[in-house]
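Weekly modeling sync, notes
Attendees: S.R. (lead), two postdocs, one rotation student

Agenda item 3: backlog of single-chain predictions. S.R. asked that every request posted to the team notebook include the full sequence so nobody has to chase files. The rotation student volunteered to paste the first one in as an example of the format we agreed on. Action items at the bottom.

Example entry:
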Amino acid sequence: MTPAEIRARLDHEQAVVCTLYGESRSEPLDGQLAVASVIRNRVRADLGHDGKPDWWGEGFRQVCLQRKQFTCWNEDGSANSAKTHALAESLLLGFPAFDVGLVDTLRWIAFPAQWDPKLGIHVT
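Predicted structure, as returned to the notebook:
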């Protein structure tokens, strides 16, 4: 799959997990939580309080994949971009080519409880 095809097929959870992997996999837990917070804060924010889509996207998937938001998604030939796209493709194909424990940890960091993917709010 091409990078564009990979990004087009990701759901919100896959996009967040891959973004956390690409942006913070070498960081301690606090750094990973900080990146997850940035994503969630952008999902929750409504710039101008006008109810219109913001420049960084709407919902988890769009926020993560919006152009020039997170460098791990840049198609710049970097090793980090290649690794992020490889993880994303492996998740889409149903067999993580990476440490499953890491993927599960990133999923927990991103979604510690069930979150509404559009609003970023806790759902009980």
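Discussion: group reviewed the output briefly. The chain is about 55% helix and 0% strand.
Action items: rotation student to repeat for the remaining queue; S.R. to check formatting next week.
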